[in-house]
Amino acid sequence: MGKELTQANINKAKIFIYVLCRVLIVVIICLAGVRGISGLKEWFSSFEGAIKFILLFTIGLIWGGYPLIHLRDSLVFYENGIAVNGKEYLFSTIGSITFYDYHYGIMTQQFMNTDLRNFNVTYIERPKKAYNEAYLNNK
User: Fold this and answer.
1) 3-state secondary structure of 139
2) What is the Cα gyration radius of the chain?
3) What are the CA-CA distances from residue 54 to residues 21, 106, 137 (Å)?
4) 26 Cβ partners below 8 Å, 6+ apart?
5) Count of Cβ atoms closer than 10 Å to residue 67 Cβ
6) In the chain, which residues have pLDDT < 70?
């Protein structure tokens, strides 16, 4: 792979904000679904209602915490290739690299497009800037 040129680290603040927004959405939807705090008494008045609420709330929290799996993401640029999340790729294998953003609502995802596959680099801090510093000497 050659000498390491630079690396792009994860953006912990972005992950925290995404998780916070998702958990708030889950809490609001769950409370709206049971008609507020007073509606919780009605749901928890029976064992079956309590199980349904806990199951739906748990599934929602798992969805809300999904960005936490990206805490291990990494992007390292070498002279002859890159390492994405610990897996190394030579430039002869991945071909050309381009970056693009995908906007939906208030959220944005960033991808590193190669001939091999698209890599989701949403939670990595400034991956395009790190790429430019490594190979184009642009800071």
Assistant:
1) coil
2) 21
3) 20, 28, 53
4) 57, 60, 61, 63, 64
5) 18
6) 34, 36, 138-139
